[in-house]
Queue: 4 jobs
Job 1
Amino acid sequence: MTVLEYQRLASEIRARLRRPPNPVKDSGIDLKRLKRGWRFAEKKPPPPIPEVQDYPRPPPKNITLNLILAVAAAQSGLTVKDLIKPDRRRQQTLVRHIAIFLASIHTKMTYGEIGIRLHRDHTTCLYAKEKIAVLAHTDEAVAQKISKIESVLFSKQLFG
């Protein structure tokens, strides 16, 4: 056999071994694998992040992250160390996220500065603010926790 015959034979074998085209992947239809089988994936856009409402009065200028952490911890029965340590328990995470949300609204700190103080990355702080902004409008318990913490922050007992 010559070299050309070997090349022709190799190309025929490759053509037989080639996988047939996948009609599902090639059609552009996106399928999701579920426990009970396949279904068409409905590509929904993520829910819009609601804008934070302006407060009728400007917040006091002497609200700091330490004050927000102390009030949030006291309202939830935790300590400030519980909020700073790298714990992922749901209650501590929720209170920490609420504190990050309030700190991003009521202080002029950046996400990086808040993250450094809480031993977190700035993207974690960004995620926490977006998450609590959505939960504040959808979950009544979270909205009540936020309003309790803010009422203590804005109370006359703290700022005379």
Note: The mean pLDDT is 80.
Job 2
Amino acid sequence: MEYRDLRDWIERVRDLGELREVRGATWEEDIGRITEMLHHTDDSPAVLFDDIPGYPSGFRILANANATRKRLALTLGLPVDIERRPLMDRFLELTETSRAIPPRVVKDGPVMENVARGGDVDVLKFPSPQWHPLDGGRYLGTGVVDVLKDPDSDWVNLGTYRVMVHDAKRVGVYISPGKHGRQFRDVYFKRKEPCPILVVCGVDPLLFIASTLEVPQGVSEYDWAGGIRGEPYEVITEPVTGLPMPASAEIVLAGFLHQLSRIFEKRAAAARAQGRRSARRRGRALLRRGRLPPIERGLDRAALRGTLQTSRTRRRDVPRRRVSRPHRHRRG
């Protein structure tokens, strides 16, 4: 692989001439509109938004990461001059071949360089955009990797789910029925137990691709992506949830999903992401503190509360900031 983490990947894309930097775009409208345009334009560049009004320089958002043949080839470790048909064949070969390599657990990494807990948690410090006019609010994901674990085995699943910001302490998580993460969560809820979860923002693009695919039952996306890389991913056991998180991730929200009631009363009629509407009583999650309200029978609600992992300065004193990606589809 020509890159070690997301930052290295960005530099390789810059060298290919496929990165554009946009400064001054607003999270309220501009970023969403530009991203939508990129998604509907062939061979459009990856775009790195910076100097977002209301946020410090360096709090960045990456959009349209793997949308061209060259960038996808780079992500998969293939020659960037590969033609389209051979790229498709190699991608199918990589996804169908059993070459899993389990992750390597390490004690420390960039993601642990800054840690905020309890009252210090503030999700609003990151410039989550309003992607579409009909969205119910601002979204961190689906351009994220969500880590959950089967409560009855060692199977760790990485998926890509909706993550909506509600306020400084709370985010909402929607997992479609049938997804592996939803299956895990439902087992915890049936037992009236909280479900551990990590929401990883800004991650190696290969690991993000893995989280969007239908990896076979019982296989971790960490193992699948490690096999393509040819070496184990380095992960850290997150101390609150006990889940493995990428050691080089930009930001990780760590906490637990809880069944709740009445927490979404003011948001029940809000449209969901990407301009679509859905059933209004579905699974969500919150990053919140304080006492949980009582469970209301018949409502499928969830809450995420715990710590927020970020990182401290490294590499020539350049701040490690949020670099996350929107994504149009959810699989895995």
Note: Residues 211 and 291 are 32 Å apart (CA to CA).
Job 3
Amino acid sequence: MKTTQLPDCTIASALSGRLIVFEGPDGSGKTTLVAALAAALRGYGVHCERTAFPGCDDKTLGKLVHEIHHQTDNRRIEKIVPTSLQALHVAAHIDAIEQRILPALRKGICVLLDRFWWSTWVYGRVAGVSPKSLRLLLRLEQLHWAGIRPHVVFLLSRNTHLLSGPLLSVDHEYVRLAKQQAKLNKVAQLPNDHDVQTTCELALRVLLDRRPTRPPRPSRALVVPSKHPDTGRGSHVPRL
């Protein structure tokens, strides 16, 4: 699937060593889109890797945190408070940043990251974790990002009419955070009510900066460009 006339070598160079992030509520289609986009980028000659927070690779801290969170083995922990759960997630993030993400970026590999610190903030707030605690946790994570900023953050969403209860609160919190973070990073709000190929093509347009000059229709990705130069570095911690 190729949607641009740019030479493959130009695309590979433009995305070399870039961090591309996918965020959104559970069930918004992040993992499926990451897999499709990775395949499409490899078709352009982009050397890319997929990873996720907290992680799902065997024998990693991220996999352990994922199992604790989703209670795949509830014999080990009877109950955990929301603040402690988010602290575990941040610990898993730091482990993945240090062991996998930063080394890949330094080698010029494009990293596609399924979830970001945004999920810690959003799910923590919805669960009632205090903003002060979350900010302290995220400042620690920021130290380990070593100033790296995403090339773009894709915020995926489904039809909000299908959401209710906690998921609706999560969706609203993501939208609010995205508006704030658009001042620091390039954010693309991407409705994912299409088939995966259509959504993948929309994401490619954003990545290759092939946006339409006319105002986008509601079904297209809405890109809010960063007000800062595209240095790839900057602050992550939300000022909320």
Note: The mean pLDDT is 84.
Job 4
Amino acid sequence: MVTIIRMIALVLSIVAFGTEGRAQQIPEELVLERFSVAKGGDALLVPVLINGRKHNFLLDTGASRTVCDNSLQIGKPRGEAEAVTPTGKVMVKLFDLSDATVGRLPFSSPDPVAALNLKPFQEVFDHRIDGMLGLDFLQGHI
């Protein structure tokens, strides 16, 4: 229950900061992390640290699994799987993402992350997108 309240506070904090240009007062004990958010319906990007390096990840509530751009050096592949993308089915390499955090939150997922070419998403959103946070991460916080 406390985790649900904190995640709601996180979302409210993001929305409040993004829509009014300043953070509204939410009790600090309820806030998991604060992020700057673009205005006008732009991509919701959050900073993710992987092996000490900051990367921009798109918050994607429609993705069942977190995806990293295949250009990231995140370790040795642990296997492969078929993934469904907007352009069809593709084979992706799977990796454990052990040294990663989303703000102060450790990245934890019961499943490995997939590596995929995210260049088409970068072109659509006109931002550098190094990955997409999926429900495998979000389910532990909402």
Note: DSSP finds three helices and nine strands in the chain.
